[in-house]
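User: Before I run my own analysis I want an independent prediction to cross-check against. Here's the chain; please return only the structure tokens and, at the end, one sentence I can use as a sanity check.
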Amino acid sequence: MARLAMSRLSQSLGARKAEAREVKLPDLIGMTCYTLASPQSSPGTRRYTAIEGGFGHNPSAAKDYEPRVLRKVSSLHKRIASTAPEPILLNDIVRWFSFDLMGDFAFSEDFGMMEKREYHQAIQMLRSAITLLGPFSPAIWIPRLGFAFIPGLWKVKDWFGMLAFCDSCMERRMKTKGDEKDIASWFIEDSKGKENDKEHARWLSGDTATVVVAGSDTTAPSIITLLYLLARHPEDAERITQELSNIDVQDLKAIAKLPHLNGAINEAMRLLPAVLTFVTRVTPPQGMMVGETHIPGNVKVAAPRYSIGRRRTSCVGKNLAMTEIRTVAASLLYSFSIEFPPGDDGEAVERDMRDQLTANPGELRLIFKPH
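Assistant: Structure tokens:
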């Protein structure tokens, strides 16, 4: 009954967006910058065109990023192959990969974490700061007080350090001319003639922070949970391997058409979504009916994706994210069979998963055996 009620709530919130106001990131934490989720970024606006192009939302823009994806996936493949067939802890390696790739397609900058096998200092700040948004999201006034009164203490300091890092990445990119199209190039084009516009600078700052978080901290848990579920269901991994045997795994168009691979990815993201809860809405002043239940006005409500596991969601960066996840899965399953180490069933992935804006899965150890 509880799940049915939550499902009805989810459907109501999705179908009645005009009534229930979405709680934006600035509302939650009192940021001095804006984000992509805003009326100024709606279809038909100049910013929307920049956002669509930057995140590879249209096919021609997405194709621009394919060489970058293939290069970074090749590095990930070599890193994992160097350990085979010994068990390997995947969490850090996959996060290094996702952040390195984000730096590449966002700013044409390589953070070098896979090569150095350690986190960049700014990424450590991001991972520390983002933990605030999980436990405190129901009482967001607590971190907002922290942002206002203790900006130099605890994890609040890391949050502002992360924002400063994001701004510095964009500033460096604006001073260079990249040989390949990246996300920043679309925003830079949109910024022409607005160099002295403080309002636009705030938009750009918010967009940059969104790119860094959404462009890396969502694909990493999606890859981890996909590999975890495929290790639990080796028959599905084998079917994908058979699909891959008939194509060139460097052909991203061919990979995108594989039914079992794409079905496995979609099912993994349904069961263990990269964003477990977070998106909330505020009911209209007059309240609203969900089934036979009346919810009073100006009440914050949420329909957690993880609890329901049935809700379709949209994402401006979906094409790019799916390209990353598909390419990683295809590269690894084409070369290796995967299994848990002896005595390990991977249970820690779900048992120790934390909700902190994006999902933070528990430890995943796998053995990669070359075919």
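Sanity check: The beta strands are 21-22, 88-89, 280-282, 288-290, 293-295, 300-302, 336-339, 354-356, 358-360, 365-370.
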